[in-house]
């Protein structure tokens, strides 16, 4: 007598059934007998994973293979997962139990003469290539998957290629995306196998559905990024210990020896997690996101009373003209008449970096338009807006605040790119520090002093020694503009890092000697660095010698990615995916789509086959490379006392 559900599953799985044999993947699943009570003739057995016990009312080969290869929360043995990841990558499985591949007899139809004008069939290879291109289109463009079943989309596809079989939505969201994800993962592993000095970025986000999602992003110094995983931690307590364990899982899966840093914001639990990981792996440095840190500086300034009052007034003006139809229309008309460039009024959003500057700048740009409305169309304004615009020093104060926020905005924009290095952090911080020191030129002396106090407080929290060492080891700059006493600081930081990398006393002494020769431009460090021809990496690889410790250190410092802004960009993409009409996307599907998106963008030159062969990531607004006109100046720190 069968007493349990497990015994029932085993007994039914051992029962022989007529027809073609099942795929070998079924050996890792228990068979659930089909429900014959619903009166349907076309019955299919269900499946239950032997590892995680997840069940399906209908076991489909493609979904079961994808589950073992990508999704099983209690992973099967590594050899099993590797086998089915390879099978999924190659597409070498029989998908005969899927709706889209069922072969049913079709009634005979008389051939039409139009059949001889265009071919109504395509080769299997073309069907596969078109399906891959379709998958890329839906994922990278954020098009809802149900569009694939829209009659107009089907008609459009048939007009382009009558023989192409448009897949069903369920096949697109499962088989096609799973197969493409397996290909992306295989390519990602192949590329990462040859890389060293990787940076791991992580950040958390609350989705529109209320889920706590964390991104683990692998960043390479050349600007390429790969999503390792997207994890739902809604049921977990986000303690430092928990995050540490999750970070270590990611690091050890890729290879701990390949990483050199972890970058994130400065939330207390994340800081603790990074420090715990660094304790276990001393060669992995905890780095604070430079863009996020500078944004905190901007927030601190906005919280000062004088700035808060000005921003509040600006927000009231912007809100009024955004909500008033008549006022907004007149303002737009005045903007056109006065040929004001840059658009209309901009909102200030706390969570959007640089919007404080954008808000104040828009008020100054629209100054003439606002004054004309105040003089000629005051009946459209309420008393509060009239009172603000008539204040004697309102526009002057807004202009002063804009002057203060401008260097902060420039620093954030320059440092949130994928190609940002520690040397860039040093240069932009010095430029920003110089600008803030010159705030005494503004009319509000007390506020200028408060800003400088805020900056001094935040300055102590920067990873400044890392930035200074990276600047020195950049062959374009070396010790240009640095004060004499900074050389000792550089050597001390280099020795502390070298010790964490496992260096001994002998190699440490050799390293200091090499740093000295590098500073003096002695051989083999006498090559000139030519911008546009050399990169930091290939320049250092030219410098060959025995026990080349400085080369190892320089390549390490040049490889650290100090900005975690890419995680914020991917959260924006997730928000793009999870709109009001796509609330049913689960975390596993979101991870697959995000992995594909990141890989396609990072390798866009290889993924675009036909359109815009000269297309680059910059053209798509994804990878931004900004030239720094101030980097070529020889005098950087000579006028400041930041390092004394």
From TrEMBL:
A GO MF label: DNA binding
UniProt GO cellular component terms: nucleus
Domain BED-type: start-end pairs: 20-79
Keyword terms: Metal-binding, Nucleus, Transcription, Transcription regulation, Zinc, Zinc-finger
Region entry Disordered, spans: 1-24
Subcellular locations according to the entry: Nucleus
Protein name: BED-type domain-containing protein
Species of provenance: Diversispora epigaea
């Amino acid at each position: 007598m069968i007493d349990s559900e497990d015994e029932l599953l085993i007994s039914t799985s051992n029962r022989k059934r007529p027809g073609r044999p099942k795929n070998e993947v079924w050996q890792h699943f228990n068979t659930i007998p089909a429900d014959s009570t619903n009166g349907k003739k076309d019955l299919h057995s269900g499946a239950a994973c032997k590892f995680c016990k997840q069940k399906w009312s209908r076991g489909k080969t493609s979904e079961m293979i994808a589950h073992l290869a990508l999704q099983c929360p209690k992973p099967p043995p590594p050899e099993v997962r590797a086998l089915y990841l390879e099978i999924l990558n190659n597409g070498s499985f029989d998908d005969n139990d899927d709706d889209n591949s069922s072969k049913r007899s079709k009634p005979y139809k008389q051939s039409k003469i139009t059949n001889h004008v265009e071919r109504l069939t395509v080769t299997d290879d073309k069907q596969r290539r078109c399906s891959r291109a379709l998958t890329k289109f839906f994922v990278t463009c954020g098009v809802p998957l149900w569009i694939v079943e829209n009659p107009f989309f089907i008609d459009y596809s048939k007009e382009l290629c009558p023989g192409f079989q448009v897949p069903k939505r369920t096949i697109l969201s499962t088989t096609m995306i799973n197969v493409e994800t397996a290909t992306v993962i295989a390519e990602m592993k192949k590329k990462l196998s040859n890389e060293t000095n990787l940076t791991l970025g992580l950040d958390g986000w609350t989705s529109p559905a209320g889920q706590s999602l964390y991104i683990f992003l692998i960043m390479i110094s050349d600007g390429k990024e790969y999503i390792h995983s997207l994890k739902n931690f809604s049921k977990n307590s986000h303690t430092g210990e928990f995050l540490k364990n999750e970070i270590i899982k990611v690091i050890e899966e890729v290879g701990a020896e390949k990483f050199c840093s972890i970058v994130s914001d400065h939330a207390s639990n994340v800081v603790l997690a990074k420090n715990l990981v660094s304790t276990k792996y001393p060669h992995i440095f905890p780095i604070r996101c430079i863009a996020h840190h500078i944004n905190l500086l901007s927030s601190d300034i906005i919280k000062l009373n004088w700035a808060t009052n000005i921003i509040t007034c600006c927000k009231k003006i912007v809100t009024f003209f955004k909500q008033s139809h008549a006022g907004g229309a007149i303002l737009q008309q005045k903007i056109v008449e006065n040929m004001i460039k840059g658009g209309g009024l901009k909102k200030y959003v706390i969570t959007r970096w640089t919007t404080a500057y954008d808000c104040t700048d828009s008020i100054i740009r629209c100054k003439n338009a606002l004054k004309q409305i105040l003089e000629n169309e005051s009946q459209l304004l309420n008393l509060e807006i009239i009172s603000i615009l008539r204040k004697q020093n309102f526009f002057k104060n807004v202009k002063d605040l804009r002057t203060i926020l401008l260097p902060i905005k420039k620093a954030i924009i320059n440092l949130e790119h994928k190609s940002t290095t520690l040397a860039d952090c040093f240069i932009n911080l010095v430029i920003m520090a110089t600008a803030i020191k010159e705030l005494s030129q503004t009319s509000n002396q007390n506020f200028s002093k408060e800003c400088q106090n805020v900056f001094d407080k935040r300055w102590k929290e920067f990873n400044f020694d890392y930035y200074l060492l990276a600047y020195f080891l950049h062959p374009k700059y070396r010790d240009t503009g640095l004060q004499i006493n900074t050389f000792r600081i550089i050597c001390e930081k280099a020795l502390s890092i070298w010790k964490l990398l496992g260096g001994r006393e002998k190699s440490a002494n050799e390293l200091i000697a090499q740093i000295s020769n590098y500073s003096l431009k002695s051989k083999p460090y006498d090559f000139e660095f030519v911008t546009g021809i050399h990169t930091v990496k290939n320049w250092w690889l030219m410098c060959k010698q025995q026990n080349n410790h400085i080369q190892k250190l320089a390549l390490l410092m040049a490889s650290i990615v100090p900005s975690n802004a890419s995680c914020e960009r991917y959260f924006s993409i997730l928000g793009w995916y999870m709109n009001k009409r796509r609330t049913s996307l689960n975390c596993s599907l979101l991870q697959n789509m995000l992995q594909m998106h990141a890989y396609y963008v990072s390798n866009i030159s290889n993924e675009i086959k036909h359109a815009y062969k000269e297309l680059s990531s910059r053209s798509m607004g994804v990878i931004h490379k900004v030239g720094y006109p101030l980097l070529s100046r020889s005098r950087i720190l000579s006028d400041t006392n930041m390092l004394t």
